[in-house]
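Ticket 4471: requesting a sanity check on a complex prediction with EPU. Repro inputs:
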Amino acid sequence: MEKFIINGGNKLMGEVEISGAKNAAVAIIPAVLLADEPCRIENLPDIIDVSNMIKMLHQMGADVKFVNRSTVIIDASKITNVHVEQDWARKMRASYYFVGALLGKYNVAEVPMPGGCDFGVRPIDQHVRGFEALGAEVSVEHGVIYARAKNGLTGCSVYFDQVTVGGTINVMLAAVKASGTTIIENAAKEPHVVDLANFLNSMGADIRGAGTDTIKINGVFRLHGTTYSIIPDQIEAGTYMLATAATGGRVLIKNVIPKHLESITAKLCEMGAEVEEFDDAVLVSREGTMKRVNIKTQAYPGVPTDMQPQFTTLLTVAEGTSIVNESVYDNRFKYVDELKRMGASIQVDGRVAVIQYVPTLTGAAVKACDLRAGAAMIIAGLMAKGTTEIEDIYHIERGYDDVVGKLRLIGADIKKIVRPDKTELHRAL
Ligand code: EPU
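Returned structure tokens:
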């Protein structure tokens, strides 16, 4: 069993480079299916979710060549099947983007229901409604999504009842080659939605309005190959910003788009940290005590739900009482019990957490309940007194590129250990 061991108390100092955005990469990789030529994708994060998406494409018959750790050339123009394997698909949420991409190119898709972090029920009704509006028949049988458009896809209007990142991306993928015009209303505005639209446009698509709540897609007959560099990861950057503030350190966080970090920056400054913005970097520092704030997570440009566990962790040692309201998911406070093991004082009632100041957290054995909760445990370990051991770190490695290496470079005392399992112990005896 693998673990992270952190000896807390070191101030983070120096410079850290942010990798490409996970949630853009996992949308752009299946989008390659739509091109009739190879695509070169740069600034890919080296994380498990990305390698799983690439494995799924490869298993469908795509030709994949890594140029280096963050650049890949994929030729998915001649795949041999439209069926995605269970094993990888169920490990992550984004595998459902293969439904939109396969429908968009071949009018047919067979994709297992996705997995991903467990925040309560995560329905896909809005995706299905979008595919059906475009003319597909969709059913879920034995855990597999079957989608087919016998007469091809035709542009339409889709109004989402709820702002959904995945639904917006999936409908965009399906509609990009449909005949006629598709209008998505109440679309998600997240940076990775815009990045996917830019990627598709660089292949010859005609998508306008991404980044606003109305996206207009004029279907095109064919998409060509492209070279494209993925945007920096907003949430990875935000996580390092909070980790720096948590330890009272000073770190230049490079390769970021400061505009994408505005809601995070605003809350950190309200808490008493300093954030200086440059063209493609932010310098975060914190010297005095941290002040309480209230936070409500919201779709972009609000405070991202994917930063909620990290903020809650930081607020455990902020003077006063803070309230965190989770407005996107029903059940995203499971990790709070782990923080309580470290001495935090938090009461959760449904989607609201009330956090009372404690002077310090103390190291303990905890687990990563999911990806961002795992990042929160790292932040807790960095600011705690003593040693913290984090289990179930595979969640963290799904989404953070070389987190141990990057943190060590800026002064954290963190290491990954691989504990021998029982079979290995028997062999050793
Ligand atoms: N929803 C529905 N019906 C749908 C789709 C969504 O009711 O058909 C609800 C969800 O249950 C949720 C809300 O709408 O309550 C928003 O869900 P959304 O579809 O926006 O989330 P997602 O596409 O499943 C992506 C990210 C998540 C991030 C959310 C919100 C990817 C692969 N995942 O999920 O990222 O939390 O958007 O910003 O892009 C993470 O990176 O750690 C992560 C969980």
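Notes from triage: The chain has a mean pLDDT of 95. Leaving this open until the requester confirms.
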